[in-house]
Amino acid sequence: MRTKQTSRRKLLKTGLALAGLGLVSVPEWVLPALAEGETVVPFLDFPERVVTNPAVDRRIIDIRTINGPFTPKDEWFTTQHYGHPKVDAATHQLKVSGLVDRPLTLSIDDLRKIGSKELVAGFECSGNRGPLQGLSSNARWTGVPLKDLLDKAGVKASAREFVFFGADRGEEEVEWRNDKFKVQQQFGRALTREKALSSEPMLVWALNGDPLTLHQGMPLRLLVPGWYGVNNVKWLSEIHVQEDAYLGKFQARWYRTLKGEMIDGEMKWVETAITHMQLKSYIARITSDGSRYKVTGVVLNDGTPIKTVEVRVDDGPWQAATMDPSTREKYGWKLFTYTVNSLAPGDHTLVSRAIDATGKTQPTAQELENKKSFLEDNSQTVRKIKV
Ligand SMILES: Nc1nc2c(c(=O)[nH]1)N[C@H]1C(S)=C(S)[C@@H](COP(=O)(O)O)O[C@H]1N2
Ligand SMILES: [Mo]
Would 128 disulfide with which of 27, 37, 124, 371, CB 3.0-4.6 Å? Predict the structure, then answer.
């Protein structure tokens, strides 16, 4: 990280010096590792300057600066619904309550004693979409498998629903028939018994080797690898095990996808919960050395192996991109590159699509036409450029 900071600063200085001489125009954001003579080709539908911190508790990444497998902790995208709760990392405790043989109250140190492992995982907010695509990041997390903790508590046979509550809360108006009630609610998300007791979910306390930042859920969050961001409950304070389905606002109402599906010639409207990530790729940046164009992009999905990523220029054929060998982790995001050997002066479009090992292909925007709510938009993001 230190090296990166230094090289970025150096780059900025060199860039500014050259700009002073009128040799190049320097964008307000700084590209990582631009080679000698390499320039950025602007996306025509992208703002020149991306406002990465639109509010104190919000941040997006400027995808044109993605530089390697891990997003630095102070650049990680961030969002939440109730602002930041006041949490004291030193005294924070996690409660495990409900249908367990042994209810538990544990400090982070107690959790560390149960076990510790690392996992590379990236995720995006289910609202992430083009052209900015700024709501995703990737990290190496440290924590304890959720199953190890639940085994310690002893899950009862009647347990069906595992609810994860953050320390953050807010007042909500709950509509019921013709009434509206104002009540205090905690941010909560639920997992089924099968998912909660599977080997993947973790309770994590570190990101890229450092304790979680306040933005990322200090001191503890749930991580469901391969699932959308909303499932990764921050400032985790309680796991409540129950038989009933959990119907909190962020489970049952806000995080739903409404889409129409043609079944036997009839349009059926289905509402589904936000769980695993849909197969997505996007072009993050295009640079040019004068004649050739280098395309760099990102792939995210639920951990299903990626068969290939392809890039298409204008109406040309889909061509295979090259996967970055440093991003091979099952649940991590993957980076790809593609080189275009020449482009005629004028307007062009470039687009990428990912295909996974099951043959699933990232859809076009048109193929998602019947998805009415904007969440889970994994459609192909078309980049427009002029050379
Ligand atoms: N406690 C709590 N956890 C939460 C949320 C929240 O509002 N409260 N927002 C979720 C949503 S919608 C997303 S996209 C991710 C964002 O995680 P990040 O800020 O670490 O990027 O946190 C999830 N976890
Ligand atoms: Mo989100």
Answer: 124
Cβ of 218 below 6 Å from ligand 1? no
Q: Please indicate whether residue 278, judged by its CB atom, sits closer than 6 Å to ligand 1.
A: no
Cα radius of gyration (the chain): 23
**CATH fold for the domain made of 2-72+276-386:** Immunoglobulin-like (2.60.40)
- Residue type, position 183, single letter: V
Query: Is the pLDDT confidence value at 25 over 50?
Result: no
Cα 166 to ligand 1 centroid, rounded to whole Å: 9
CATH numeric code, 94-255:
3.90.420.10
Give residue-wise pLDDT tens across range 294-317: 999 999 999 999 999 999 999 999
Cβ atoms of 78 and 59 closer than 8 Å: yes
Neighbours of 136 (CB within 10 A): 24
- pLDDT classification of 1: cutoffs 50, 70, 90: very low
- Domain(s) labelled CATH 3.90.420.10 in the chain stretch across 94-255
Ligand 1 atom 18, closest CA: 78
Q: Please indicate whether residue 164, judged by its CB atom, sits closer than 6 Å to ligand 1.
A: no
Mean pLDDT of 162-174: 97
CB-ligand 1 contact for 235 (6 Å cutoff)? yes
Q: What are the DSSP calls for 142-162, one per residue? A: EEEEHHHHHHHH-B-TT--EE
**Of the bound ligands, which one is closest to the alpha carbon of residue 79?**
1
Determine which residue's CA is closest to atom 6 belonging to ligand 1: 80
When the pLDDT of each residue in the chain is averaged and rounded to a whole number, the result is 92
Cα 122 to Cα 66: distance, rounded to the nearest angstrom: 13
Ligand minimally distant from the alpha carbon of residue 75: 1
CA 139 vs CA 71, 241, 289, 317, 385: distances in Å: 6, 29, 31, 34, 31
**Looking at the chain, which residues constitute the CATH 2.60.40.650 domain(s)?**
2-72+276-386
pTM of this structure = 0.92
